[in-house]
Automatic annotation (TrEMBL):
PANTHER family, per database record: 7-CARBOXY-7-DEAZAGUANINE SYNTHASE
Gene from which the chain derives: queE
Domain Radical SAM core: 36-216
Group of enzyme by EC: lyase
Assigned protein family: Belongs to the radical SAM superfamily. 7-carboxy-7-deazaguanine synthase family.
Protein name as catalogued: 7-carboxy-7-deazaguanine synthase
Protein role: Catalyzes the complex heterocyclic radical-mediated conversion of 6-carboxy-5,6,7,8-tetrahydropterin (CPH4) to 7-carboxy-7-deazaguanine (CDG), a step common to the biosynthetic pathways of all 7-deazapurine-containing compounds.
Pathway assignment: Purine metabolism; 7-cyano-7-deazaguanine biosynthesis
Length: 216
């Protein structure tokens, strides 16, 4: 190689810099959960997750190498094809990646940026709304606590109420607190969640309304 040849970064280096990202899927739909329930939103689902929730409904996302790697320009260009300007970055676990470049570009193009994360990796990105959904299977990174605008705890068994309270103590006072029944356990736990929230009104309930509407 001529020493004057430009050094071309590898895909691995571009992913590490957050300039390219593995995309499992991206689609325009209605946000079904949490604070933005009912809002049209463009979902960007990044491939890769090392959290390992037993009840995960997107296990196919876990292996990042299975998914095509796209430049952030291409990702944003595809988002711009739809009329909505709310984008939700999810996964997998999106904080496996440096999200600074992608969110900067999205905001330059006029998007409101939301993230849904387990918080298991250091925080990055410029987000208007951070939905933090901690999981028992991998401890959150401490950088998430000050960033979270919404704490959403999935109730899969009884001990998850205590897990929710432990995390409520760690987030900022303005953080909205939500309990959400895990879909397969909803019939069992929804009545208990209703009672819990009625007695502890700092909490409210999040439901996976997109599943009732049968949309992705
Ligand atoms: S953090 Fe999300 S994607 Fe990862 S295993 Fe848990 S539910 Fe699945």
């Amino acid at each position: 190689m001529n020493t004057l040849d430009p050094v071309v970064p590898t895909t691995q280096e571009l992913v590490a810099a957050g300039l390219q990202l593995p995309i499992m899927e991206a689609f325009y739909t209605i946000q079904g959960e949490g604070r933005f329930t009912g809002h049209p939103a463009y979902f960007i689902r990044l491939g890769g997750c090392d959290v390992g929730c037993v009840w995960c409904d997107v296990k196919e996302s876990w292996e990042a190498a299975k998914w095509p790697v796209l430049s952030i320009e291409k990702i944003v260009e595809e988002a711009l094809a739809y009329p909505g300007r709310l984008v939700v970055i999810t996964g997998g676990e999106p904080l496996l990646y440096n999200l600074d470049p992608l969110t900067k570009l999205l905001k330059e193009k006029g998007f409101t940026t939301n993230i849904e994360t387990s918080g298991a990796h250091p925080f990055s990105g410029d987000f208007d709304w951070v939905c933090f959904s901690p999981k028992k299977f991998k401890k959150p990174h401490p950088s998430i606590f000050v960033e979270a605008d919404e704490l959403k705890v999935i109730i899969y068994n009884k001990s998850d109420f205590g897990f929710a309270e432990e995390h409520a103590k760690l987030v900022k006072s303005t953080c909205e607190l939500r309990l959400q029944p895990e879909w397969s356990r909803a019939a069992k736990f929804t009545p208990e969640i209703i009672d819990y929230v009625k007695n502890r009104p700092k909490w409210n309930i999040s439901l996976q309304t997109h599943k009732f509407m049968d949309i992705p």
